[in-house]
Specification:
The protein has about 425 residues and is α/β, with parallel strands linked by helices. It folds into four domains: about 160 residues, MoaB/Mog-like domain (Molybdenum Cofactor Biosythetic Enzyme, Chain A); about 60 residues, Molybdopterin biosynthesis moea protein, domain 2 (Alpha-Beta Complex); about 90 residues, Molybdopterin biosynthesis moea protein, domain 3 (Molybdopterin biosynthesis moeA protein, domain 3); about 80 residues, MoeA, C-terminal, domain IV (Beta-clip). It is about 20% helix and about 30% strand. The chain contains seven helices and 28 strands. The strands form eight sheets. A six-stranded mixed beta sheet has the order 7-4-6-5-9-8, with no helix packed on it. It has a six-stranded mixed beta sheet with strand order 16-13-17-21-20-18, sandwiched between helices. Strand 20 and strand 21 form a beta hairpin. The chain is elongated. The structure holds adenosine monophosphate (AMP) and magnesium ion (MG). The site of magnesium ion has 6 residues, from loops.
Length: about 425
């Protein structure tokens, strides 16, 4: 039996990042850059005005004051998107809009609110230093600069940077297609008839959600019955169409648990078939012609926890992420816990944070079939293998699995940080 750490290491050592593909910019959202991106432009491309106002030579109004205003002749108007070829001479000003390029000769901009305009020209009442209200060429990005590095996930700001630097196509790691197979004679579809002995294959849904959340492309292959033939058919199809296979159920020691037999029949190299963990002890990892195949136990929470701990990091490695794991925080346990030695425990918890301190409680019954306590959880409490009793008030490592559950109902500036 592998330890949790050994199992994870073995999996990560066996999955390489997938190949690189060029993707149109909008489709790159939430994916991962496969190369460093260097800008071949300056942003802004030229010095431009930060205000609606007047561009001029600062020396012309050096002496301006309320008592002794200075009037300059307005010689042109430069709208945003416009451009002036004229060199601004001494005694001249150009009306200029925000974002418009500064005309040659000008070195400062005075905003519209600070001047008066009449038939004589534009009148200034105070000096304006060189460079005031001017955004410099390249102040954001210079030509040749590395704007984003390989391994960066693309969110809204990264989309914007890529757009601003003219990257209509983006080099990304390909996302794996993940086949999802539920196994079990007792399983029905969500709209099936819940006659005696039948249950809905909820794993088909939790695993689908987890695959999408991990950044891969789900390929739901439905329910395989607990027969050699049906399992063979499902795994064969999955092998042809997917980069990763996740099957649920059929890896325990029951009479109808045929998954491993079928895998061997297909020539799979079974790397391990149990992990010293709860839930999810019979978690199985195999390579099918190099294709990673994960057999998660059928119990709904065992399936989800196994996915969280092993399959999600594997998918993130395949898609080029540098950060493979959830954020882990230390939290104060608000209840005592006991466990069996020799197994790492993953408990469903509710994490709350206030003023930089976290506290955590379990979300109720921790049976591996109790999906409700998973649905109420926003974190996984990790209890190390060697521990047996954990006192209330002690610290535990907690993996944050759902940031949205830490979201607030009030904006942060209303929440208790007043002086
Ligand atoms: P197994 O790992 O096949 O022995 O299944 C263990 C338990 O998980 C049994 O109670 C199954 O009914 C349940 N189970 C198996 N597959 C699923 C599934 N796809 N959705 C929900 N529960 C399942
Ligand atoms: Mg089964």
């Amino acid at each position: 039996m592998k330890t949790v750490e050994e199992a994870l290491q073995e999996i990560l050592d066996s999955v390489p990042p997938l190949e690189i593909e060029q993707v149109t910019l909008l489709d790159s959202l939430n994916r991962v850059l496969a190369r460093d991106i260097n800008s071949s432009r300056f942003i802004p491309p030229r010095d431009n005005s930060a205000m609606d106002g007047y561009a001029l030579r600062s020396e012309d109004i050096m002496s301006a004051s309320r008592q002794r205003p200075v009037t300059l002749r307005c010689v042109e108007e430069i709208p945003a998107g416009g451009y002036s070829a004229r060199v601004l001479a001494s005694g001249e000003a150009a009306r200029i809009m925000t974002g418009a390029p500064i005309p040659e000769g000008a070195d400062t901009v005075v905003k519209i609110e600070d001047v008066t305009v009449d038939a004589e020209g534009v009148t200034f009442y105070a000096p304006s230093e060189k460079g005031v209200n001017i955004r410099r060429r390249g102040e954001d990005v210079v030509d040749g600069e590395t704007i984003l590095t390989k391994g960066t996930p693309i969110g809204p700001a990264q989309l914007g940077m890529l757009a601003a630097t003219g990257n209509a196509l983006v080099p990304l790691y390909r996302r794996p297609v993940v086949a999802i197979i539920a196994t079990g004679n007792e399983l029905i579809e969500v709209d099936g008839d819940p006659s005696p002995g039948k249950i809905v294959s909820s794993n088909s849904y939790t695993l689908y959600g987890q695959v999408v959340e991990a950044g891969a492309v789900p390929l739901p292959l439905g329910i395989a019955r607990d027969t050699r033939e049906d399992l063979l058919a499902h795994f064969t199809l999955a092998k042809e169409r997917a980069d990763v296979i996740v099957s649920s159920g059929g890896v325990s020691m029951g009479d109808y648990d045929y998954v491993r037999d079928v895998l061997r029949e297909l020539g799979a190299e079974v790397r391990f078939e149990s992990v010293a963990q709860r839930p999810g002890k019979p978690f199985t990892f195999a390579l099918l012609n190099g294709l990673p195949l994960f057999g998660v136990p059928g119990n709904p929470v065992s399936a989800m926890v196994s996915f969280e701990q092993y399959i999600r990091p594997a998918i993130r490695k395949m898609t080029g992420h540098r950060a493979l794991f959830r954020r882990t925080v230390k939290a104060t346990l608000e209840e005592p816990l006991t466990k069996k030695g020799g197994f790492t425990y993953f408990l469903r918890g509710l994490l709350t944070g206030r003023d930089g301190r976290f506290t955590v409680t379990t979300t109720g019954d921790q049976g591996s079939g109790i999906l409700k306590s998973m649905a109420r959880a926003n974190c996984i409490i990790v209890l190390p293998r060697h521990m047996t009793t954990i006192e209330s008030g002690s610290e535990a490592a907690v993996q944050v699995i759902d940031n949205s559950l830490l979201a607030a109902t009030e904006p942060g500036y209303l929440e208790g940080f007043s002086a």
